[in-house]
């Protein structure tokens, strides 16, 4: 290969790489590098991707087209704080459970796709769990229920 061909090959590889999404994603749009944990609420098991940094919390489930059954995203803050969430660039209808430092659900909000409406936690929140809309109510999960398996808990 002469110098021109090597240069064109390298340039082509760089252009292809630049066009790739910032994170590899599976068929549901899940980021391949997110930690995944198992949680339980009563007798109900679930799997959650963990968003435990400011950039991961900001990205959340944006642009996701689907979630596998009983899968969601757990948002984690270092300390309990006032939390509000919205659905900008999120095409899935979701429900969010705001969870205190002891793992107790404070309140659950139903969120509509692409909405800028803010959904506020009822108190200082250490965790927020987003699931497909209706997941909590379909299982009889409500405020006061305990979430088991939370990180740092």
Question: How would you characterize this protein structure?
Answer:
This protein is an alpha+beta fold and 153 residues long. The protein has a single domain, classed as Sandwich (Jelly Rolls). Helices cover 18% and strands 34% of the residues. The protein has helices at 3-19, 54-59, 135-138, and strands at 36-41, 44-51, 71-81, 84-85, 94-99, 105-111, 119-120, 125-132, 147-148. Strand 2, helix 2 (54-59) and strand 3 form a beta-alpha-beta unit. The longest helix has 17 residues, at 3-19. The protein starts with a helix and ends in a 5-residue tail after the last strand. 29% of the residues are buried.
Helix fraction by DSSP (H/I, runs of at least 4): 10-25%
* Average pLDDT metric: 86
Structural class per helix/strand content? alpha+beta
CATH class: Mainly Beta
Major sheet attributes: 7 strands, mixed
CATH superfamily: Protein of unknown function DUF192
Oligomer type: single chain
Number of strands: 9
InterPro entries: DUF192, Saro_0823-like_sf
Protein name: DUF192 domain-containing protein
Signal peptide: 1-24
Keywords: Signal
Keywords:
about 150 residues; alpha+beta; Jelly Rolls; 7-stranded mixed sheet; two-stranded antiparallel ribbon; 3 helices; 9 strands; about 35% strand
